Amino acid sequence: MKIKGLIFDLDGIITDTAQLHFLAWKQSLLAENIDFSETENAQLKGLSRKETLRAILELKNLTWDEQKIDTVCFKKNEIYLKLLENLNKDHLLPGILDLLTSAKSKKLKIALASSSLNAPLILEKLGIIAFFDYIADPKKIKKPKPAPDIFLLASEGLSLNPENCIGFEDSLSGFLSIKSAKMRSVVVSLDQFSEFNQADFWFSSTDQLKIDHILTVLNS
Questions:
Q1: Which of 1-5, 117-121, 149-153, 191-195 has the highest mean pLDDT?
Q2: Do 6 and 210 meet the contact criterion of CB atoms below 8 Å apart?
């Protein structure tokens, strides 16, 4: 099947705000007398805000009601938005601007499939929102990654069949989401999950992403 669309995760593929997320979680949890380490944070890659907090509570053997969860999520996001104020085009990961530019020159459609509710703001600050034909709204899906919902929503938003799309991810849950959506897959990660061997491409850095090579292989 000919590739007609590219669907990207955001954090770890287009930019890297993981440290900002960690600092925001650490500060908001500290206010609740909960210590949160970078090691614990690394286990939660690819989860939505609320799913992240639920996972943290599970790690800490804590139970909160929904109102408390919503309150802490809101406070975390306020801190995160403050940290995002200095984000700009210099925070694009290597090779991404060239990749997007080349994809557009080839008339490929481009979408974002991120669990971040702040994705449109981040794309705006990075100066690349005009490249995107569709941004999937995580509030419209029933199940988060590793379920295929958000990638399927993105392909639907592009008016393309999933098999005509390539999904780009850096997390295991994200890759499993692409796989479940029956899309072609590109993983960019230093993690050594055995599942990544099933990806069509597995790179260690975004500067290795060359759309001509990827299309030549997948369209052959």
A1: 149-153
A2: no
Residue 157 · residue 5 · CB < 8 Å: no
Does 49 belong to an annotated binding site? yes
pLDDT digits (tens, 9 = 90+) for 29-73: 999 999 999 989 888 877 889 999 999 999 999 999 999 999 999
The reply to whether 158 sits in an annotated binding site is no
Q: Any known ligand binding at 90?
A: no
| Residue 207 labeled ligand binder | no
Q: What is the DSSP letter of 11?
A: B
Alpha-carbon gap, residue 214 to 220, rounded angstroms: 10
> Active-site residues: which are they?
9, 11
CATH class of 5-15+93-219: alpha beta
pLDDT at 159 over 90: yes
Reduce the DSSP state of residue 101 to 3 states and report it: helix
Whether domain 17-84 has CATH 3.40.50.720: the reply is no
